[in-house]
Amino acid sequence: MDLNIIKLIFKFGKFLALTPSSIEPATLSCFEKCYIFLTFSIYTVGVIVTLISRKIFYDQLTIIRLFLRLLLDIDLYFFNCYIALAPMLTKKRQWFKLFKYLPKIDASHLIFLVNVVFSFYVWLTKLNWNFFKLYLLEYFQMYSQFFYLVLGCIILQMLLSRYRHQTLLLRQQIQVGRIRLPSEFPRVLRKVQFNILMLKEVADIFCDIFGWVILFIIFFTTLKYLGYLDNVVKGENSHVPTDIGLRISISISQNATLVLFSIGILSFVLLCDEILKEFEAILELSYKVNVSLTEGLTGRESDEIQNFIDVVSHNHPQFTAARFFNIDRTTIFSILNSLTTFLLIIIQFNLNI
């Protein structure tokens, strides 16, 4: 993974106002600002028209289904508002710093688009051309979320590879140091120390940009699952056709979307957790450096090692979803716990009707 992939994604994303026009530090031109606000205005009008067109369908929904559907629409709208305005107008500097620091430290889209094409075919069969009026914008909104999910995973993979490189450097120093203390050891130690500081800043910038993004995506996917579970519990859906083949196609289309987002979130969370584990390995190796290589060192060299340990221990990366909760392996359990709780509520509500 290198910055060439990111640059390619940015070239595509700028046309849909999903990303800044580049990762260079240039300020936004008047044309770029007008393009962003024009895209945002068209998008807002499109959402209003879509909601009005769906009113006849919303009137047929149960209270729970209507509540979940409205929350889903709100989540998608505010997500696209955020990515259209915040990262490009107020966080462009963070984007630049994010990709400025990464180089100093030594097929998913295709699957989603195939699913979109298949979904278009299925829903066009059921709704004819009304599908475009009712759901075309929603598929763009979902693609925006998936776009950022993939981009986030790519950046996390780059970050993880750089943390692993620091681990490798420390292991090499420990192995060599047991035979003889290399003259380059202080230089390597300072290099790793500098890299740890830069990586911590990169992690903080990443959270600043992607914190709200992952929060909206987790909320969206959870709502999708709740809507699916509500259909399963009720065992009926007035909008599903009687044709068996079409019903199977619709089910595959809906489930494929859930699976893709679930895999994306799982990858995002596990990459964050893997980075945290890699940092713990670096911290453990730092203490081993102190134990293995301090014999025969001067007081100044011992102080350098102790300072190195202090810097590492005080620059622990932390990933959060807009500071609402930390992102690590426990996030998966929390999501499953929330789904289970709401499933019980849905079952109880349906039993009382």
How many DSSP H or I helices? 11
| Helix content percent band | over 70%
Largest sheet: none
How large is the share of residues in beta strands?
under 5%
Q: Average pLDDT value? A: 78
Structural class: mainly alpha
| pLDDT < 50 stretches | none
| Rg over alpha carbons | 25 Å
Q: SSE string, helix = H, strand = E?
A: HHHHHHHHHHH
The number of distinct structural domains comes to: 1
Number of strands: 0
Principal-axis shape: elongated
Q: Give the N-terminus to C-terminus distance in angstroms.
A: 53 Å
Family: Belongs to the insect chemoreceptor superfamily. Gustatory receptor (GR) family.
Organism: Asbolus verrucosus (Desert ironclad beetle)
Subcellular location: Cell membrane
Transmembrane segments: 34-54, 66-86, 107-125, 145-163, 205-228, 248-271, 332-351
Structure characterization notes:
- By secondary structure, this protein is mainly α.
- 80% of the residues lie in helices and 0% in strands.
- It has one domain (94-352).
- Helix 8 (185-234) packs parallel to helix 10 (299-313).
- The longest helix is centred in the middle third of the chain and has 50 residues, at 185-234.
- Belongs to the insect chemoreceptor superfamily. Gustatory receptor (GR) family.
- It comes from Asbolus verrucosus.
- Gustatory receptor which mediates acceptance or avoidance behavior, depending on its substrates.
